[in-house]
Amino acid sequence: MTTPRSEVRLIAPEAARRVPWRNGRGTTRELAIWPPGSELARSDFEWRLAQARVSEPGPFSDFAGYERLLVVVEGAGLVLEHGQAAPRQAARLLEPCQFPGDLVTTALLPQGPIEDLNLLYRPRSVRAQMETVRLGMRSARSPLALGHTLVYAPTQALVVRIPGEEQAFELPARGLLWACPSRARAQAPEEFELRGADALAAAVIVRIEALASGEPAA
Prior knowledge:
About 0% of the residues lie in helices and about 50% in strands. It has about 220 residues and is mainly β. A hairpin with a 7-residue loop joins strand 15 (about 160) and strand 16.
């Protein structure tokens, strides 16, 4: 029997926990939070991935000490207005953008409501990146992080194959696959495989790794 080299869990859409926004203007579907037992309300988490619907213009919650990575997964996009602190950002469909969690930011919706995927992380302790892959009806390979790899299916179901796992994982639309290395996994980059079965199939991939001792924060 092949020894699994990653610990993998699937979070179905209905299993995500609904959590109020810090500013009280809406709710998120909390997909993953680290470390175990941490809470958004206590701000004791290293990182948190959540999905939310933005139905009207308004301010983002303040998250001092965190960085945001955000991608629109449904709708025409939004505009991030940062006042005089930073240039305005256009967040288009499946194009990730990044900004500090304590930046005074307002979401504008020039073409109506959207849904987004939002990662909050502490840049002093972890590095994170977010990318999107438009799969359609094809396969693609992508590197696993040495820390956490999260794969979100925004539109259509996906099939995901992880090195060392005997079975492929069927990821439903709006579901999340969360892989982190087991002790048996070699400390070297490996690749996993994604496969779409619909012309609209896409994936959002998030990689999170702890900063090494003495390594400068980004």
